[in-house]
């Protein structure tokens, strides 16, 4: 009789359980260690648990666009707002439509949430327009005029040659000789070093732009500049009548300018409420900005916004800057208008192509805000805040407490059932549940800073549901082992022979659950995605725990007499399971003995 070949594993052969068990213990130790090293020892909480701000935006009808409010534009607005908010590092922000013309934005409490709130409804319609002329804002429209001082202009002190200051009394970085003296344009955000060009006109422009000293009586009111060539008379009248002296009047002017068509000239206010402009048609649209970022200019010590254009924008930008470089001030200036308001109006001295920068009185926060808005584009609709609600964490905490109590009761009932029905096998199930809980908690905690995952109430529900899925896998394996014991096998072979059959069932069951979670995550939005994500994560971890923890532990415990001898409290007592002697090994032994005697 030929001897059996060695090295071939029979169905009842046992593997090396310590290898799998050591691997998963190493992974768990790494996850726990990484959690403490990262400094994040608890999961990030969503708005319903941590509190935050809920903003309701209402779409407004725009002049000349009667059908602008439609589902396509609303979906586009949701996508842009979500990218803006998340671009500031505010994760777990929920943006979704409600009805035909409302968008709900939920911003969790935390870093940059204030900036995100300021950006959610900003239309961010950007346009690069050539400056035709400008005028100073007349404070007499809302304030009593100041008496002129004995020397210098009204409200200003006379400065030595080569020195100027803005209306706030802050020193300027540019000499007076480079600026027109009548109706002098203020420094800062109105005229900048943007677009990588000097804020100084050519020598010819300076000589031809000389005006009488401001101590002399002007021939025209200070808010009305002499007629520039190429400026239509009706546009000049609109500029003279434009009121930018208050925030309310400036807001109305900006709204009207933003509603104008790109090909139409407009009059617009400066962001600093000091200058008003007459601007030509849009030369480069904001949609042609491919990238924008906030940068600290080390030479000037101020924050700027650097931009780059796509191919079409680069060509248009080069054409318009080439034309402006040949003109005199102020028609060599280039206004950067955002939502009908001039953010900056730099001078141009040479043809520029692919890159530009906006500079002015930016702080780091305002520069980052503008760069973030430009990066993700303009909203297709105009919105106004119809409701702003501050969500406190008190209600969410009460709901979380109730959910955790419900989860604890459910877990306790599962454990009681396992102990009563499976007795000693319940120890393996409890250890597996603990391993699954440790991995789930650490992964959720690490995913917070990694991808912005935030734990909300639906996610907690998903984790509670996963308890049943994990327990179901244990039950499948235990029942397969019991079936083998009922057929007369001893425990150690029964454990190994039951595993292939149980493994297939567990994989199929978990695959169905994971598929359902994936579909739910894809087709839903908002908080339901949190439920789907948690359900999918815990289902995947169930496979890992059963393969690398439950099975090895079962193999090791099957070698202990308490289980292998079928103790009545082991859950594997052959008598309680209905196994009928003689066992298969006994029948085979009897058969061998009979054959020996006959021989």
Short description:
The chain has 599 residues and is of the alpha+beta class.
Helix/strand-derived category reads: alpha+beta
Number of strands: 13
Largest sheet entry = 5 strands, mixed, barrel
Beta-strand portion reads: 5-15%
Q: SSE string, helix = H, strand = E?
A: HHEHEEHEHHHEEEEEHEEEHEHHHHHHHH
Q: Oligomer, anyone?
A: single chain
Average pLDDT metric: 74
Give the proportion of residues in helices: 40-55%
Radius of gyration: 37 Å
Strand order of the largest sheet: 4-6-5-11-10
Which spans of ≥5 residues are poorly predicted at pLDDT below 50? Answer: 4-14, 142-226, 582-594
Q: Gap between N and C termini, in Å?
A: 15 Å
Q: Note the total helix count.
A: 17
Shape: elongated
Outline the structure in words.
With 599 residues, the protein is of the alpha+beta class. It has helices at residues 17-38, 47-50, 71-87, 113-119, 203-208, 233-241, 247-258, 311-324, 364-376, 393-422, 425-451, 457-486, 491-523, 527-557, 561-564, 574-577, 584-598; strands spanning 52-60, 94-98, 102-108, 126-136, 266-270, 275-279, 284-285, 289-297, 302-309, 334-338, 341-344, 355-359, 382-391. A hairpin with a 2-residue loop joins strand 10 and strand 11. The longest helix is centred in the last third of the chain and has 33 residues, at 491-523. The two termini are 15 Å apart.
Provide the descriptors you would attach to this structure in a database record:
14% strand; 599 residues; five-stranded mixed β-barrel
């Amino acid at each position: 009789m030929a001897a059996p070949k060695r090295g071939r594993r029979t169905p009842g052969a046992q593997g090396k359980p310590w290898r799998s068990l050591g691997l998963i213990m190493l992974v768990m130790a790494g996850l726990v260690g990484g959690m403490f090293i990262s400094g994040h020892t608890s999961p990030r909480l969503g708005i319903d648990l941590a509190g935050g701000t809920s903003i309701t935006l209402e779409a407004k009808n725009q002049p000349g666009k009667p059908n602008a409010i439609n589902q396509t534009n609303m979906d586009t607005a949701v996508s842009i707002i979500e990218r803006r908010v998340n671009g500031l590092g505010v994760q777990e922000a929920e943006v979704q439509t409600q009805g035909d013309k409302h968008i709900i934005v939920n911003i969790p409490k935390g870093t940059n949430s204030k900036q995100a709130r300021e950006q959610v409804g900003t239309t961010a319609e950007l346009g690069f327009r050539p400056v035709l002329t400008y005028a100073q804002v007349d404070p007499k429209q809302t304030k009593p005029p100041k008496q002129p001082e004995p020397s210098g202009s009204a409200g200003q002190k006379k400065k030595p040659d080569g020195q100027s200051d803005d209306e706030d009394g802050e020193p300027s970085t540019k000499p007076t000789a480079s600026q027109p003296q009548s109706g002098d344009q203020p420094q800062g955000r109105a005229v900048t070093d943007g677009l990588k060009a000097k804020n100084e006109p050519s020598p010819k422009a300076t000589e031809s732009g000389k005006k009488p000293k401001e101590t002399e009586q002007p021939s025209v009111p200070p808010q009305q500049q002499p007629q520039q060539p190429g400026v239509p008379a009706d546009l000049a009248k609109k500029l003279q009548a434009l009121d930018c002296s208050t925030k309310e009047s400036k807001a109305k002017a900006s709204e009207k300018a933003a509603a104008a068509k790109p090909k139409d000239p407009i009059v617009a206010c400066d962001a600093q409420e000091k200058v008003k402009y007459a601007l030509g048609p849009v030369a480069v649209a904001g949609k042609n900005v491919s990238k924008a970022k906030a940068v600290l200019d080390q030479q000037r010590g101020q924050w700027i916004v650097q931009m780059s254009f796509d191919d079409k924008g680069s060509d248009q930008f080069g054409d318009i800057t080439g034309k402006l470089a040949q003109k005199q001030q102020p028609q060599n200036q280039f206004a950067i208008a955002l939502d009908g308001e001039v953010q900056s109006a730099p001078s141009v001295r040479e043809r520029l192509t692919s890159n530009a920068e906006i500079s002015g009185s930016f702080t780091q926060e305002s520069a980052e805000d503008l760069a973030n808005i430009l990066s993700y584009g303009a909203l297709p609709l105009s919105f106004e805040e119809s409701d702003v609600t501050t969500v406190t964490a008190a209600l969410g905490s009460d709901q979380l407490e109730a959910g955790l109590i419900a989860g604890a009761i459910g877990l306790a009932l599962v454990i009681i059932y396992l102990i009563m029905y499976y007795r000693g096998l319940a120890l393996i199930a409890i250890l597996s549940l603990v391993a699954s809980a440790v991995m789930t908690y650490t992964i959720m905690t690490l995913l917070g800073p990694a991808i912005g995952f935030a734990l909300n109430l639906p996610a907690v529900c998903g984790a509670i549901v996963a308890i049943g899925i994990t327990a179901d896998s244990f039950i499948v394996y235990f029942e397969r082992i019991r079936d083998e014991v009922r057929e007369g096998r001893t425990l150690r072979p029964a454990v190994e022979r039951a595993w292939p059959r149980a493994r297939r069932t567990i994989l199929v069951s978990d695959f169905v659950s994971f598929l359902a979670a994936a579909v739910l995550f894809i087709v839903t939005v908002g908080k339901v995605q949190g439920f789907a994500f948690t359900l999918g994560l815990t289902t995947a971890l169930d496979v890992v725990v059963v393969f690398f923890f439950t099975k090895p532990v079962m193999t090791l415990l099957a070698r202990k007499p308490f289980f292998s001898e079928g103790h009545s409290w082991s859950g594997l007592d052959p008598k309680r399971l209905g196994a009928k002697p003689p066992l298969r090994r006994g029948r085979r032994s009897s058969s061998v003995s009979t054959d020996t005697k006959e021989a």
